[in-house]
Write a structure and sequence with these properties.
Layout: E1 36-40, E2 55-59, H1 71-77, E3 79-80, E4 82-94, E5 99-110, E6 115-120, H2 127-143, E7 147-148, H3 149-159, H4 166-183, H5 188-191, E8 198-200, E9 203-205, H6 210-222, E10 227-231, H7 236-249, E11 254-258, H8 265-277, E12 284-286, H9 294-308, E13 311-314, H10 321-330, E14 335-339, H11 340-358, E15 361-365, H12 371-384, E16 387-390, E17 403-405, E18 408-410, E19 413-415, E20 424-426, H13 428-431
Parallel strand pairs: 9-10, 10-11, 11-12, 12-13, 13-14, 14-15, 15-16
Antiparallel strand pairs: 1-2, 3-7, 4-5, 5-6, 8-19, 17-20, 18-19
Helix pairs in contact: 3-4, 4-11, 6-7, 8-9, 10-11
Pfam family, one: MR_MLE_C
InterPro entries: Enolase-like_C_sf, Enolase-like_N, Enolase_C-like, Mandelate_racemase_C, Mandelate_racemase_N_dom
Protein name: Mandelate racemase/muconate lactonizing enzyme/methylaspartate ammonia-lyase
C-alpha cells in the first residue's frame, strides 16, 4: 500500500545537488536526482561558524554504512527557499489521569515541495504565548528570500533569542532541518553522524502505590526495559517504599532517580544513606538540589561518587551554554541532561561538542512531547552516538499517537529507518482545524 505524503506537500524526488564553491550564490539544480555522500573526519564540527571539517563530495554513492553527510557543510551550501511556514496548535490526549497536552506544531514547506515538521514543547498555560511567538518566526520564513540554511537558522536564533524561547527555537529548527534532509533524501540519523540507527530508552514509573509500581515495572521489564526512572522529592518515605517494591520484583533492573531539585544538599545526602541501607544503588541521581545551588550540587556529587559509587547529573542547573561551561570548568558533576527544548537543536550540538572535548557524560531527555519531537531527538542521539543514557519515553504517557510514520518501537528499542528526514509527520485529523 502506498504511503501518504505529508499533508499539504507534493511528492517530488530529491533534486538538490550542490557544488561546494564558497563563491557560488545558488546551488545548481540538476534535472536528474543525485545523492550526496559527505565524508567528514572524526574530528569534524557539526556547526556553522566552528572549525572547518574535512569534506569530500561524492555523487551517486550508496548510503550503506555509517558515513556522515556533514551537517555543518550542508548548512553552508544548501539554500533554503521557503514556500509555506505554519504554526498550529498540537493538542493530544494524555493518559491517566485524563488531561491534554498542548504543544505547538511547526510545518515548513520549501519551494521544491519538500516539507519538514517540528514540535514546540509548551505547558498548557503558555501554549498561547508559544503559538504567538512561533507565528512571528513563521512570518519571517514566509517573507524571507532564499538564504543558506546557516543564515536562516541564525535569523531564527535572533528572533527567538535566549532561554525564554529555546523550546520554540527548537521546534522551528527541527522543521527547517527536516525539510532540508527531505530535500536531499537523507534520514536525520545519517545527517548527524550515522553512528547507529537504533537506541534503547529508559522508562519512567509514575507516582503510584508500591503494588501498582511493582506491577507496572514488571510489565515494562517483560517488554525488555532494563532501566527504570523514578521521580522523587514529594514524599520520601512513600518513594522509598516504591523503589524497594520494584527492586524486589525486578532485581536485575537499573534505577535512575530524579529529584527535580527538590532537596537541600543535606537531604540529598540523607537520601543516599537511606538507599544504601536498603541495598539500592542507582546508576544515576539527577538534579538532587535546587538549580542555583552549585555548591550543594558539588557536595552531593562528591559524597555520591566517593562513598557510594553513584553518579550525579545536572539537569535544571544546566539551562544555558554558560551553565555547561561552569560544570566543565569546575568539574561539578559527571553527567548533564540535554533536552532539545532546553537548548534548541544548534545549542544541543554545541553542548555535545563541549562534552566530547571535556569528557563530560551526556543524557538525552525530552519534555512531554509526541513522537515528532522525540523522533528528532532520537535521530540526533543515534547519529552522534555519544549518549550514556537515553530517556525518550514521553510518548508512552500519551493516550493517542498523532504521528504518521516515524521510528519503529520494539519495547525499549527505537529503530530509525532510511526514510528521509525525521521520517514522520502529523496526521491530518490532528491539525485539520488549522489547515
Amino acid at each position: 500500500m502506498a504511503v501518504m505524503a505529508p499533508f499539504g506537500s507534493t511528492i517530488s524526488p530529491s533534486t538538490s545537488s550542490f557544488f561546494f564553491s564558497q563563491t557560488q550564490k545558488r546551488p545548481f539544480q540538476s534535472l536528474i536526482p543525485r545523492k550526496l555522500n559527505l565524508k567528514i573526519s572524526a574530528k569534524a564540527s557539526f556547526l556553522p561558524g566552528t572549525a572547518d571539517s574535512t569534506v569530500e563530495a561524492v555523487s551517486e554513492v550508496s548510503l550503506a554504512g555509517t558515513t556522515s553527510f556533514g551537517f555543518k557543510n550542508l548548512t553552508e551550501t544548501f539554500w533554503v527557499d521557503v514556500q509555506r511556514a505554519e504554526e498550529m496548535p498540537l493538542r493530544v490526549k494524555l493518559g491517566d489521569p485524563p488531561s491534554r497536552l498542548e504543544n505547538v506544531a511547526i510545518r515548513v514547506e520549501l519551494s521544491n515541495g519538500c516539507a519538514g515538521w517540528g514540535e514546540v514543547a509548551a505547558a498548557a498555560a503558555t501554549a498561547g504565548a508559544a503559538l504567538a511567538k512561533a507565528k512571528e518566526a513563521c512570518e519571517f520564513l514566509r517573507r524571507s528570500s532564499a538564504l543558506t540554511l546557516n543564515l536562516v537558522l541564525e535569523e531564527i536564533g535572533n528572533i527567538l533569542h535566549g532561554q525564554e524561547y529555546a523550546s520554540i527555537r527548537a521546534g522551528v529548527e527541527m522543521a527547517l532541518i527536516d525539510a532540508v534532509a527531505n530535500s536531499i533524501d537523507v534520514p536525520l540519523w545519517r545527517l548527524f553522524g550515522g553512528v547507529s540507527n537504533s537506541l534503547t530508552t529508559s522508562v519512567t514509573i509514575p507516582i503510584a502505590s508500591p503494588a501498582e509500581a511493582s506491577e507496572l515495572a514488571s510489565k515494562y521489564c517483560g517488554k525488555g526495559f532494563n532501566i527504570i526512572r523514578f521521580n522523587m522529592g514529594l514524599n520520601l518515605s512513600a518513594e522509598l517504599q516504591v523503589i524497594k517494591a520494584v527492586q524486589a520484583a525486578q532485581p536485575n533492573c537499573l534505577f535512575i532517580l530524579d529529584a527535580n531539585g527538590k532537596y537541600t544538599s543535606k537531604e540529598a545526602i540523607m537520601v543516599l544513606e537511606k538507599l544504601h541501607e536498603m541495598a539500592v544503588c542507582p546508576v544515576l541521581f539527577e538534579q538532587p538540589v535546587h538549580k542555583d545551588d552549585w555548591n550543594g550540587l558539588a557536595d552531593v556529587c562528591d559524597v555520591a561518587r566517593d562513598k557510594y559509587g553513584i553518579n550525579v547529573a545536572a539537569d535544571e542547573s544546566c539551562q544555558t551554554l554558560l551553565d555547561v561551561q561552569k560544570v566543565v570548568q569546575e568539574n561539578i558533576v559527571e553527567f548533564i541532561n540535554i533536552k532539545l527544548a532546553k537548548f534548541g537543536v544548534l545549542g544541543t550540538l554545541r553542548v555535545i561538542e563541549m562534552a566530547r572535548k571535556s569528557g563530560l557524560n551526556l543524557i538525552i531527555d525530552s519534555m512531554v512531547e509526541t513522537r515528532l519531537a522525540t523522533g528528532f531527538a532520537g535521530h540526533l542521539a543515534c547519529g552522534v552516538g555519544c549518549f550514556k543514557y537515553i530517556n525518550l519515553d514521553a510518548p508512552f504517557v500519551l493516550s493517542e499517537d498523532p504521528v504518521f510514520g516515524g521510528y519503529e518501537v520494539f519495547g525499549p528499542v527505537y529503530k530509525f529507518t532510511n526514510a528521509r528526514g525525521v521520517g514522520g509527520f502529523l496526521k491530518h485529523d490532528t491539525i485539520a482545524q488549522k489547515l
